[in-house]
Request: fold
Amino acid sequence: MALPRLRTVVLVSGAALLTRRALKRRIARSPLWPLPALPEPVSGHSQRRATAVRRLLITERSEVAEGVVRLRLEGAGLPRWEPGAHLDLVLPSGLVRQYSLCGDPEDTGAYTVATRLVADGRGGSREVHEQLREGLEIEVRGPRNRFPLTEAPAYVFVVGGIGITPVLPMLRSLAASGADWRLLYGGRSRASMPFLEEIEKLGADGDRVTVVAQDETGHPDVAGALAELAPGTAVYCCGPEPLTDAVAAALPAGRPLHLERFSGAAGDAAGPGSGPFEVELRRSGRTVPVAAGQSVLAAVRTAAPHVAYSCEQGFCGTCQQRVLEGEIDHRDDLLTDDERGDSMLICVSRCRGGRLVLDL
Reply:
């Protein structure tokens, strides 16, 4: 009798082992099993977002213009980046802010960023200026690039103030390659314009750089700078909204504009057509109501408080989420046409019907 009982124990144990292995494989495919396995969500995971998290040491802090602080953040084996890229800084308070990289892309031991103090801003720049000091470690994400330097026969840059930070590495690269480029650089005063001395040296050959200090000569002549553009000339602009609007208005119809804004220019979540609807979070199995005038981000964070976000104005891309069902009312001007097909920025965009399903 002992032998049959032993055989039964062995068979049952073997079956249990096989079941456990199968269950582990099933959970690996979908950690929220028995919910269906889905592709990775956009926010926080997409390779396009380059969201690798690192802790870097602040080794240098200097003032490069009135109200502008430059930080050197050091670490080992950092990814290379291309001109126009930016870095997410996770500040001590938990705020996340994006700052353009303005150092040397070949330097894999450090990243350099610069930020202007905005006294009436939302607190990020003040925290950088008041709390970030040499010797402090800070968490960063990225880099990623939504403002790349494209191939072109010639370039014209129109920049305002701190908007020079993503453009500076572009100018260094173009100057080194012997490319044809011009820069119109405006600011409140020369003392407030970061990296001015280096930029004037870069453009000393051929009068490539025009500096316009508002306290000396008023506002820059945007229309004049963009008149009679040679065919194929790439036009880049980075600065406050009045400047970007002036550049867009001065360009001939159909001429592309490479643009990076300080703030969102599109409609917001409380604009016209902002009625109520509901959002299903497919991965968590929850549905949340979005009230009239309330952002999808605010509603979603009541159920998923760890969803990443930053600008809340539709220009940084941090809150981008994959949409599985529903018609999107896009209110940003950041996403590409391909991205708009199946994703949205939930800080500003909404639903054209009564229901959206997000991959959350």
